[in-house]
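Justification of computing resources. Each target in the renewal requires a structure prediction run like the one illustrated here; the chain below, 232 residues long, is used simply to show the kind of job we budget for.
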Amino acid sequence: MEYLHIFDHCMMASEIEREIAVHDYCVNTFEYDYSFGDYSFSVLGPILDKKAACEGISKFVKLALDYLKVENIVVFGKAIDPVNGSKPERHAWNIVYVDGSPYHLDVTFDMTIKKRINRYDYFNLSDDDIKREHTIINTLPTCSAQGNDYYSKKEMTVNSPTELSNYIANCLKRGERDIVIKLRNVKDRENVVDKVLDIARQQHNEINMYRKNTAINITYNPSQLVFELNFR
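Resulting structure tokens:
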């Protein structure tokens, strides 16, 4: 267990802060092992090779959270890759208990969609949210609680175009160039990317009047409605 001393600094933090520490360490340290090497499906993959498939990553998450006294399990099912998947494939992730309630945590998916900054699209989701790409094949704890997902806890969600406009404006005023936001209550998803981009461009031009030619790169998670905006 000597390797896990890297998490000692957060031993006294809240459960969700300990979970964030494990999530961020994995996202910033490990790579997905597309070669499926000898330790790819074992906890030894992340520890020895700094890479693994979803099963090895999930087992490391369990080991680290166990060390930090956060109750969790590894679960198996199928899922569609959020980046380039077209059909469900075998997959593994975790269920984590926070404040007594179980939530889905898929660190592997957050690793694969990371661009410039860490993503938390699959951090503490309910059954309804995770089932947008994941198929659960085991009898598991019912994850019905809401509100402990990362974007809700960090107030990074919006419910209307006006809220989105204000959120982007406030981020730009603070000098942020990489912005992540989760949209809620979107009834019409048609052209939603163009609408978000239009709002982002309008706010940028109003705040940065002399830098109107700045390029805005946008990446989009269509199932979880999370957007990453990069202003360059």
